[in-house]
Task: structure prediction
Amino acid sequence: MFKFVDCIDAGTEYCPCYLAEKGECIICSQLKGRAFCDCLNWKGTCIFQEYTWNNNKAKKARDFKEYVLKSINFLRDDLIIMEVFVNPYLAKQLNNIGSYVFLKKPQSPHCFAMPVSIMKSNIKNNVITMAIKILGVKTKDILDCKEKVEIKGPYWNGVQGQIFLKNLKNSEILISARGVAASPCVMVANKLKKHNNNVIVILDKGRSNENFAKKEFLDLGCKVYDVNMIDYSNYTLKDEFKKLINELMRKHDFKVTMSGGSDEFHRLYLNYIYSVNKNLNFATVNNALMTCGEGVCGSCHLKLCNGQVIRGCKQQYNPAEVFINIKGDVNI
Amino acid sequence: MMVIVIGGGWAGCAAALQAKKCGAEVLIIEKTDMLLGLGNVGGIIRNNGRWTAAEEMIALGGGDLFEIADRCARHKNVEFPGHKHATLYDVNIIEAEVRKYLYSMGINIMFENRVVDVEMEGRRIKSVYLHDGTEIEGDVFIETTGSTGPIGNCLRYGNGCSMCILRCPSYGPRISISMRAGVEDLQGLRGDESFGAMSGSCKLEKDSLSKELQEQLDKDGVVVIPVPKEDINLDKLKNKVCQQYALKEFAENIVLLDTGHAKLMTSYYPLEKLRKIPGFERARFIDPYSGGKANSIRYLSMAPRDNHMKVVGIDNLFVGGEKSGLFVGHTEAIVTGTLAGYNAVRAGLGLNLVELPTSLAVGDIIKFENESKQTIEGLKQRYTFAGAVYFERMKELNLYITDVDKIRKKVEGLFLKDFFKNKII
Result:
């Protein structure tokens, strides 16, 4: 059975990482305790060679650095848009699908660091834009930032199924997003538009009657629809949402659909799409709990249906393998 | 019936050709943009016992590729230390000729596609997967992916990636398909029982040599020059794949052969040292590009097989070339590949499989290699018609024959004339 295994850091300047040092590399058999090559998931560079030439050590890991806070803009009591001046290197590296950073208040201990998706990264003025929902200890702590924030990055695994997005050219994609998960979808839409794709976006009206990211999508030239997506009485997809999906799928030739929401939403949405059209590829916002971002701490681990353990912070999976119930017994 | 050949080197081409001649639909899946693999930098045929093997194959009706190689010869009847009546084919033209021939026979070829995994159904392979997840179904599969590289192996067991003709960084590394199907690979050993062996020759750009050397190569096909005493390194011979060229003469002399490039019969040679030798002042390597420090590592991925070339434990997977054993050379690849192609079609039809008779060198080597590699000492040997232990055996058993008529009569006597020309579908 063909195995879709991909490490988002493979072949980057952060590869090989601590995992290779401990014989746990996601990609390379020689750095996974085996004596011979078995490059099923070749990423264009030999990680074993990089490791040997780096004196059998991991490359230097990312570290926190202080950056100047440009602005915090309250969209609601519990939803902010944060802009930060970063250096040109970080701005360029974060201008990619799935980019995220760890963010914390200067002087706060490392346990306050939280992963935040990048909505926009301006490589001209080096400003990154993030949407943050104030939910708990870490997000409340960040509200106390005055002039500076600490950022550790770049990381790129904020979106799963990236292979389907990066290969999409001159085609059509449907993005359905709700709440703060619309933020990484803006970056996706931005990149897909550059490859001449028609990007159709459905946004959940939510509490504010309009998603904060609507303007961003419109500015990119996406066609945007506002609907109420969820029937909270039994947590299923609302009929108006399903009707809109059916209508759009009749009208367009989508090759990929992206889900921006919680894992519960991914499950409902992907299974509904699968029930309508079995040929679409899926991308999802990555909701794995992340603490270190290096595949070490274990908080992001999840199990695929075949029992394989995935390190959610740096390992890619095919969202269909995680969320689709082939028997079709999900209460959509 | 669909026969899928994985790997388009000499063995894969021979297997595909034979399966096609037998009447099957054939698809070669090759990871690079060229057929012949290491055959693009080899070039030596018909030396010593390879003469007999080539003529036996021609008499058996499986000589198509030898005839192309003969047509592409730059030099015939060349002698160099330990070797007689060699033919040196032109590595710069032969790939296009073989490609043209395979296409003319109706063989399908997918270039720049790398097979990475298999789908099994019990003891049978149902399909193979390409690197992008595409699934390709077949009835019978022939693996001729060789045993060389990839980068990590060349690093762990050699001096690192030497940027050889296999071009792993460009086209992706070799994958052992038999291992993906659940059969553990065998490895060849060196004298000290470490794994693998280093490719035994490198190529210099002929134009970078002195005019005199170029002229001598063009005229005679061979140049022998003594190595400066301080540079003689007999230890290097122990690591060499090509035991037929691991003679003292090859350590004490620089042996150059004209295969279109100037083939330097040593694994690698530090450029600074090489350029101190008269005539080599401007020398540069053309294969491997880093021939000044390294060469590719081989024999790390052989599948256990029977004498029909079928992989032990899998009902519809056959192997040829280095994948099938500790064989060295194009001739050996063509012989084993041809039998693999023939038996693959028989297996697809549910017919009994055939062995080649041991009264012919081409049958004897297949059986002898298989028996020999059951022992540790046997795993340290390489098996070629051209030298080392197997050429000695050929001479002892009177299998080494250079009289073409005698070879033809022998094959006719076995009622095997044009055996490989028979359509069986």
Notes: Chain B touches chain A through 30 residues (CB under 8 Å). Chain B has two domains: 2-193+297-421, 197-287. The mean pLDDT of chain B is 95. Residues 2-193+297-421 of chain B form a domain with the FAD/NAD(P)-binding domain fold (CATH 3.50.50.60).
